[in-house]
Amino acid sequence: MTTEWQLQEAKNRLSQLIRGVVHGDPQVITVRGKPTAVLLSVEEYQRLAKPRTKLTDFFKESPLCGEELNLERNRNDFGREVEM
Fold first, then answer.
1. Comparing C-alpha atoms, which of 76, 43, 47, 30 is closest to residue 17?
2. Distances in Å between the alpha carbon of 72 and those of 45, 69, 76, 77?
3. What is the pTM of this model?
4. What is the pLDDT along the chain (84 residues), one digit of tens a residue?
5. What is the sign of the dihedral through the CA atoms of 53, 54, 57 and 63?
6. Is the dihedral of CA 63, 68, 71, 74 positive or negative?
7. How big is the CA angle at 14 (ends 35 and 49), to the nearest 5 degrees?
8. Sign of torsion, CA 24 35 12 3?
9. Which structural domains are found in the chain, ordered by start?
């Protein structure tokens, strides 16, 4: 459950805000009523900041890598009919 805090309230109740983060609840800090920052647990931050795998590396690491695939299409296959 995400909780919103006004900046001044977040400053005054930092330990309570951190407790919420530790329990897995992101904490949103607002300035003049506008969401400005989000506090996350270290684990959640690391998950989000983890470098993404390039698509080519994904396919190279796939269990299907090296398998022969039949990509030929039947000449009589014209797809499906669609009503317009």
1. 30
2. 44, 9, 12, 11
3. 0.60
4. 889 999 999 999 999 999 999 999 999 999 999 999 999 999 999 999 988 888 888 888 888 888 888 888 888 887 788 888
5. positive
6. negative
7. 60
8. negative
9. 3-60 (3.40.1620.10)
Owner of token pair 């009503």: 83
Instruction: Classify the phi-psi angles of 79: left when phi > 0, otherwise alpha if psi is within -120 to 50, otherwise beta.
Output: left
Q: Which residue has the tokens 């001044």?
A: 8
Identity (one letter) of the amino acid at 58? F
**Within the chain, where are the H helices?**
7-12, 14-22, 42-49, 55-60
